[in-house]
Amino acid sequence: MRILLGCIVAVVLAFSQAPPPAVSLNGRVVTGSGPKARPVRRARVTLIGRGLPAPRITDTDTKGAYRFDRLPAGDYKVMVQKPGFVKLEADAPPDATLKMDRAGAIEGVVTDATGDPVLNIVVAALQPQPGGATAELMTQTRTDDLGRYRLHSLPPGDYLIEAATDRQFLNTAFLMPGEKRPDINRSYYPAGASTIEESKPVHVSLGRDASSIDLTLTPAPPVKDPAAPPPPPRPDATGTARIAGRVVDATSGKPIKGARLLLLPTEGRA
Amino acid sequence: MKAYTLRVEADRFVTLEYGQKRPGETGTPIQITVEGQDFKADVPLPRGSAIEGTLLDEFGDPAPSVLVQIATKVYAAGRQRLMPVGSRLQTAPSDDKGHYRIIGVAPGEYHVAALSGVYTDQNEVGGFAPTYSPGTTDAGAAVPVTVAFGADTTASFALAPAKTVSVSGTMVDASGQAVGRGTLVLGPPDRLQRMDFNTARAVTAPDGKFVLRNVPTGMYTLQGFGVPPPGYQGPGNLAAMPFGWAALTVGDADVDAVVLKVSAGTSLRGRIAFDDDGAARPKPDQVRVTAIPVEFDSAPMGGGPTPSETHEDWTFEARLMSGMRRIFVNVGSTSWVLKKVTHNDMDVTDIPVDTRTKDLDNIEILLTSKVSKVGGSVTDDKGPVRDYAVVIFSSDPTKWIDRSRFVALGRPNQAGRFDVRGLPPEEYLAVALPNVVQTEWMSPEFLQQLRPLATGFALQEGESKTLELKLRKRP
Q1: Class for domain B49-158, per CATH?
Q2: Which of A141, A168, A207, B165 makes an SS bond possible with A102, Cβ 3.0 to 4.6 Å?
Q3: What is the pLDDT of residue B14?
Q4: Nearest CA in chain A to B421
């Protein structure tokens, strides 16, 4: 009897697993409301649903419209992203009109103790969490050669701004024997804050830029490694020559620290 | 005696070689002549410049997440092309305001291309064609921007809207098995002789499937590179991987079910012979036979050298051949030079061979120790000149082919003299210029301009010639 019941259950299950009819989902993404509503063009729309093995991705067109075809019937959610707008997550009923808000941004400059801009500093916007929990990373970017950064597409709120030397950068930094990589160093806004506790939040409103959020950070140079073994004896220099010199700024004549040199045998015809 | 090139790079500065005065030129080799020599090599570096600007869509709104690639017009692999400069790491995608900044740019003229969709990231939005400053999709009609020493240049423009679709399919090997983690490169068809050289890359999933999202309407060459056989020890060189290609025309609709087959291609086999006993023979591993593509649709548009072995008995095998190629011989000895290449007794020294479908056996490479030498010095009205470039080229324009044996560049050594070795017997022209920029000295257009300025001379096999040249103004 139990075996027979098992067979019936299996048959019912098999029927219920027949592919449901394929459906389409379409919608439109706008910003602003009423007569001022404008399409959000070329936004990335990600569709998530239990019937999908992996999320589907499409773009809105120049009218802000999107469409997914050949979907199994079911409930779906969409995530809409475009730089400059607050990320939107919503249910996705057919023929939806989804409204996106213009996001805020925080920008400024990172300089070192001498006032020179610092390149490739990772600047992060952190959001304080209730109950003293670790602040959550919302977004991050890097400074350019002028020390400038811009953290954008931020929802309204209060953010702590952290500047840190880049781990990837430190890992590729050239070390002399007996040196070790410096630790990542960090600083916070306002300039002079060296811990997150000393940091003051920056308030971001919809569609507004918070400018001149400047920080100071002096990347630490490689440090002597006390644990390093004594340098190996120099290889036998018999039959060799020495090339030495200085790398300097062609305009100011100032020495350039941290330049990388590559010596290659010259091949082929002169 | 040994010579070295010293290259120096630093953040925010232009990378230069020791003795290099201008970007695009070569530096001065450091000649180590005696043991214990102390060579002083100071290298001043100019500050890098930047190109920045704002990218807009066709409605005047910012275009975010667009990668800007700068390129210079150079003679590369047989014709003028816009070759990308620097790494894409020099630039972040445009921000929410459409702003971008490319740093560490050397002075010069650049074409600025805005790339989106398939050219950036698998999930990035499309809807634009690659657009060149000041806003054209025709690379040939683009206007370059000029970057000066230590100064920033602006290039702001609107991107050209385009229909973009998905191209999907599967990579398979010669036996039809799916190839996971294979590399795909989508680029312009070489046969159309277009200037642009923008490529998109993707990697196949473990089941061999791939999707290229947001490919603009147009014609493409899709090239596939398989994975190395188990136990492969060599470098990560695409040209050493199984290869396949497909011509692709992308219209208004998605392209599905593309099957890209990659295979180990064909081989070149033969032996190396010596025309005389004029010098001690090189070691077999000093002579490397390979073949360079003469078109880049049915042969890889990227990657390093193809694998090749020269055995102790002077037979060789060059593998992973594809497309139409010219046989190329590298001799790691200054005492020997290539004289002739034959295939089944037919002279193919500077002529492409067809490696598309079958192996080529019976290739004979003949080396000679009768190595020609063309040396000399350069003067202007005031006397000897220490810094110059001498271009030596065949008087026969049909020999001005890609990486020709009949076209050479001479640079002064520390004594101010040039020395070019191994040119084949020929009627030559020679001209001394203050400098040459990048690879222009190989291009037929440039050589044609040099012709009226040049001095003619004949060179016999193994002959030594001395030329005293007057410095000419660049055409």
Answers
A1: mainly beta
A2: A207
A3: 83
A4: A269
Which residue, among B11, B42, B256, B442, would best test binding to A if mutated, counting the most A CBs under 10 Å from its CB?
B11
Domain locations along chain B? 1-46, 49-158, 164-261, 266-368, 373-470
Given a cut of 50, is residue B475 above it in pLDDT?
A: yes
Residue type, A258: G
Is B38 in Cβ contact with A244 (below 8 Å)? Answer: yes
Q: Which CATH superfamily is domain A20-100 in?
A: Immunoglobulins (2.60.40.10)
Which top CATH class is B373-470?
A: mainly beta
Q: Report, at the CATH architecture level, how domain B266-368 is classified.
A: Sandwich (2.60)
Encoding tokens for residue B418? 């040039």
Q: Where in chain A is the domain with CATH 2.60.40.1120?
A: 104-223
- At A7 the pLDDT is 44
Residues forming beta bridges with residue A80, ordered by sequence position: A45, A88
Residue contact B42–A44, C-beta within 8 A? no
Q: The whole model's pTM is what?
A: 0.84
- Which whole number is the average pLDDT over B205-213? 96
Each residue's pLDDT tens digit, B377-405: 999 999 999 889 999 999 999 999 999 99
Indicate the Cα dihedral angle A190, A195, A198, A204, nearest 10°: 50
pLDDT at A9 over 60: no
State how far the Cα of B441 lies from the Cα of B447, in Å rounded to an integer: 7
- Among 2.40.30.20, 3.40.50.300, 2.60.40.1120, 3.50.50.60, name the CATH number for the domain at A104-223: 2.60.40.1120
Residue A1, pLDDT score: 43
Q: Taking residues A189-193, report their average pLDDT.
A: 92
What per-residue confidence (pLDDT) applies to B319?
93
Chain A to chain B Cβ contacts (< 8 Å)? 164
The CATH number given to B164-261 is 2.60.40.1120
Residues of B in contact with A47 (CB under 8 A): none
DSSP annotation string for chain A: -HHHHHHHHHHHHHHHTSPPPEEEEEEEEEES-GGG-EE-TT-EEEEEETT-SS-EEEE--TTSEEEEEEEESS-EEEEEE-TTB--EEEE--TTEEEEEPBPEEEEEEEE-TTS-B-SSEEEEEEE--GGGPPPEEEEEEE--TTSEEEEEEEPSEEEEEEEEE-HHHHHHS---TTEEPPPP-EEETTTTB-SGGG---EEE-TT-EE----EE--PPPPEE-TTSPPPPPPPP-TT--EEE--EEETTT--B-TT-EEEEEE--S--
Report ipTM (2 d.p.).
Answer: 0.82
Question: Is B47 an interface residue toward A (CB < 8 Å)?
Answer: yes
Residue A103, CA distances (Å) to A59, A83, A88, A92 in order = 19, 8, 11, 22
